[in-house]
Amino acid sequence: MTSVFGFPLPVILGQLMLGLVNGSFYAMLSLGLAVIFGLLGVVNFAHGAFYMLGAFAALVGLESLGINYWFALVLAPLAVALLGVVLERLLLRHLYKLDPLYGLLLTFGLALIAEGVMRNHYGSSGLSYPVPDALQGVFNLGFMILPVYRAWVILASLAICFTTWFVIERTRLGSTLRAATENPRLVQAFGINVPLIVMATYGAGVGLAALAGVLSAPVIQVSPLMGSSLVIVVFAVVVIGGMGSIFGSIVSGLVLGMVEGLTKVVYPEASNVVVFVIMALVLIWRPAGLFGKS
User: Fold this and answer.
1) The dihedral of CA 271, 275, 126, 123: what is its sign?
2) pTM of the model as a whole
């Protein structure tokens, strides 16, 4: 049997595939962070909380209103995006001209409030969200048995990430978004409603986090702590890819997920810190990140 690093090849390939599933969540979450920071200059530390709220919105919708998974993929992100829009109008818009540290502290406080409220209501134990009937079953890949739902997560995440990148980087709408954040007075002189664009951008960023939460609900236990345990890793992914780089966040998230999966085979003890080690090395070699600008 072929081996790599002294381990059977099927084991390596299986861990890389599972790492790609985790990398898909990293990519989606870091994408939302990159959109918000790249276009608004806000370090959104509440991103993990919005991810958690997306999962809970799907769960509560199913248990209380009978909203199935497919409708939850649309309605839960919209609900969380609406919450993000309200917070942006009430709080964040007052901080855009200040040091980004103020935005970080505010969103960190919002994350603690959201986590505390949900933990007080639902407790700290995880809750299960069922896999939809259409996505049950497995694929036999030869080197591993891959659940159909995990394959769906990979495909859906890739489609969402690269569609977002295309809209921002290759369309007129994306050009307007970038112009509105770089030179708002000039754009407003052309009759474009800049505050509306900024509000929609923040709503879209947190909506992406909520969508990742809905996708993750059938894979992991839904709990108030699910966001806080993931957001630090996602920030490291964004730093590695380059703060504000949409493409860098997507690529870094996918690759680092697979690196983390491979590390679990080669040296399991380092799997929880390998992303941070890579971040430290990248910051020493290229402080702006792999795809970022100085």
Assistant:
1) positive
2) 0.91
Paired tokens of 157: 């995440």
Whether the Cβ atoms of residue 206 and residue 39 lie closer than 8 Å to each other: no
Domain boundaries, the chain: 3-285
For the chain, report the end-to-end CA distance as a whole number of angstroms. 47
Q: Which amino acid is at 190?
A: F
Largest CA distance in the chain: 67
Residue 107 has pLDDT above 70, yes or no: yes
pLDDT over 60 (residue 1): no
CB pairs under 8 A, 24+ apart, for 134-137? 135/218
Tens of pLDDT, residues 274-293: 999 999 999 999 888 888 77
CATH number of 3-285, picked from 1.10.10, 1.10.760, 1.10.3470, 2.40.128: 1.10.3470
Per-residue pLDDT reduced to its tens digit, 221-232: 899 989 887 888
Q: Which of 252, 207, 205 is nearest to 103 (CA)?
A: 205
How far is the C-alpha of 35 from the C-alpha of 102, rounded, in Å? 18
Q: Residue 181 — very low, low, confident or very high, per pLDDT cuts 50/70/90?
A: low
The angle subtended at Cα 88 by Cα 115 and Cα 232, nearest 5°, is: 45
